[in-house]
Design goal:
The complex is a heterodimer of chains A (115) and B (114). By secondary structure, chain A is an all-beta fold. Chain A is built from no helices and twelve strands. In chain A, the strands form three sheets. In chain A, strands 2, 5, 6, 10, 11 and 12 form a six-stranded mixed beta sheet that branches. In chain A, strands 3-9-8-7 form a four-stranded antiparallel beta sheet, with no helix packed on it. A two-stranded antiparallel sheet of chain A has the order 1-4. The model of chain A has no long low-confidence stretch (mean pLDDT 93). Chain B has 114 residues and is mainly beta. In chain B, the strands form two sheets. In chain B, strands 2, 4, 5, 6, 9, 10 and 11 form a seven-stranded mixed beta sheet that branches. A four-stranded antiparallel beta sheet of chain B has the order 1-3-8-7, with no helix packed on it. The chains are: A mainly beta (115), B mainly beta (114). Chains A and B meet through strand 5, strand 6, strand 10 and strand 11 of A and strand 4, strand 5, strand 9 and strand 10 of B.
Chain lengths: 115, 114
């Protein structure tokens, strides 16, 4: 079974609007972390936001927020007030257990922001 | 503060050759991880080093190897290259090996195998 599922291969959004990128995960480990990364065409993976499995509140970082629904095992990324520079690939990733660094990535969502 | 530096950025090899990729982590970071990114398989974990010791290894054949030096710089080597090894190889560093620490990625080394 896929550990991280991103069901939206591509998304379009108008500039200044909000957009939600979906991510569901599968793990039996009670301790895990969820990450979102942005990958522009240059190839570099840029860290956006982190949510720990024991965190009580949804994570927020500027225009990025993570809609964490633990019972549903979903960790959707919300980008508010989209900008042209937000056009990129977005990856959801999970790290399971403690002391383990390896991230499992989803297949990604290509976001295109239209003027 | 300089980011993660990977060299070379682009390289072309032929089947059967071997290749060595280098990664210099952010100053002070002791953990270095490597990932392979291909259109078909996506991003896959190769291995992770912390203080010169391999901590974790992904599901890749023995042709893929790596090491970390005392200054935390890391190299990965792929021997007997195959066409399927064509990929973007990403290196990531972090300060600790704690779960909550974010990974900082480099821009990658794009390998083409002909």
């Amino acid at each position: 079974a896929q550990k991280i599922t991103q069901t939206q291969p591509g998304m379009f959004v108008q500039e200044k609007e909000a957009v939600t990128l979906d991510c569901t995960y599968d793990t039996s480990d009670p301790s895990y972390g969820l990450f979102w990364y942005k990958q522009p065409s240059s190839g570099e993976m840029i860290f956006l936001i982190y949510q720990g499995s024991y965190d009580q509140q949804n994570a927020t970082e500027g225009r990025y927020s993570l809609n964490f629904q633990k019972a549903r095992k979903s960790a959707n990324l919300v980008i508010s007030a989209s900008q042209l520079g937000d056009s990129a690939m977005y990856f959801c990733a999970m790290r399971e257990g403690t002391g383990r660094r390896a991230l499992t990535f989803g297949s990604g969502t290509r976001l295109q922001v239209q003027p | 503060k300089a980011g993660v530096t990977q060299t070379p950025r682009y390289l072309i090899k032929t089947r059967g050759q071997q290749v060595t990729l280098s990664c210099s982590p952010i100053s002070g970071h002791r953990s270095v991880s490597w990932y392979q990114q291909t259109p078909g398989q996506g991003l896959q974990f190769l291995f992770e080093y912390f203080s010169e010791t391999q901590r974790n290894k992904g599901n890749f054949p023995g042709r893929f190897s790596g090491r970390q030096f005392s200054n935390s710089r890391s190299e990965m080597n792929v021997s007997t290259l195959e066409l399927g090894d064509s990929a973007l190889y990403l290196c990531a560093s972090s300060f600790t090996s704690q779960q909550t620490g974010e990974l900082f990625f480099g821009e990658g080394s794009r390998l083409t195998v002909l």
